[in-house]
Write a structure and sequence with these properties.
- The chain has nine helices and no strands.
- The protein is mainly alpha-helical and 246 residues long.
- The protein has two domains: 166 residues, no CATH class; 73 residues, no CATH class.
- Helix 1 crosses helix 4, helix 3 packs antiparallel against helix 4 and helix 6 packs across helix 8.
């Protein structure tokens, strides 16, 4: 009888392992590989341009890239099965849950723009949410809710707040530096260095300087703005005007 039970259970165990492997492959594909491909091939959402304009969501690039990166890391750690103690499960639950929220928000925003690409982050969000639920269920089987709550909050805040804080600091620096260059105050040399760095990493759009050049009422201001633009980008400001308006 025991021998018969063993023979019956072996195919079931094999099928179960096959399903687990298939699910892990799906999670890796939709939770890590496909988002990476989308980021690399992004035409105009966070990098590149659309009809000469700056990327649609340039001001949220660090939030998207940082949140996605931390979310992929959380998912990868969870799938390795080496970080499945109660506290680590709660921490990864927070990380994957936060990444799922960001992915869902991005998907809704893309779909609102009429872009089919929005379906990708929505599918990714489903992957993160499903694994987050599995993580918190395992955590609750190993520890009391009060013991794991701080770890869940830590994972959530890490993925949500760290990129958001970096984005806020960057946006503030870019805004103040652009204003300094337009006004031509004493901080202009420092502002040029900061914006050159941010522009080289795709974190700053310099079109406000181009617009200021177009409405400047005197040749001295135009020349100063043109020199500043050239120092930051290595390009002539008139070339950018041609891209924008022609």
């Amino acid at each position: 009888m025991e021998h018969g039970t063993t023979e019956l259970s072996t195919p079931l165990q094999t099928e179960s392992r096959a399903r687990i492997r298939a699910r892990i492959r799906l999670d890796v594909a939709l939770g890590i590989v496909v988002p990476l491909v989308c980021f690399l091939g992004d035409p105009f959402y966070f990098k590149g341009s659309f009809l000469g304009s700056e990327p649609f969501f340039l001001r949220y690039k660090l939030v998207a890239y940082g949140g996605a990166g931390l979310g992929m890391l959380s998912l990868g750690l969870w799938l390795t099965e080496r970080w499945r103690s109660g506290r680590w499960c709660a921490f990864l639950f927070g990380g994957m849950g936060a990444a799922g929220l960001l992915a869902a928000y991005a998907g809704i925003a893309f779909v609102a723009l009429g872009a089919w690409l929005g379906l990708v982050p929505l599918l990714t969000a489903c992957i993160y949410f499903r694994n987050a639920v599995a993580a918190i269920r395992l955590a609750l089987r190993q520890a009391a809710p009060i013991a794991i709550t701080p770890y869940a909050l830590a994972g959530l805040l890490l993925v949500l707040c760290t990129p958001a804080l970096a984005q806020w600091r960057t946006n503030t620096m870019v805004r103040d530096s652009i204003q300094s260059i337009i006004e031509g105050d004493s901080d202009t040399p420092v502002a040029i260095r900061r914006l050159a760095w941010a522009w080289s990493w795709g974190l700053a759009g310099l079109d406000p300087i181009v617009v200021a050049y177009g409405v400047a009422s005197d040749d001295a201001s135009r020349d100063r703005l043109a020199r500043s633009y050239r120092a930051m980008t290595g390009q002539e400001i008139k070339e950018r005007i041609h891209e924008l308006y022609w």
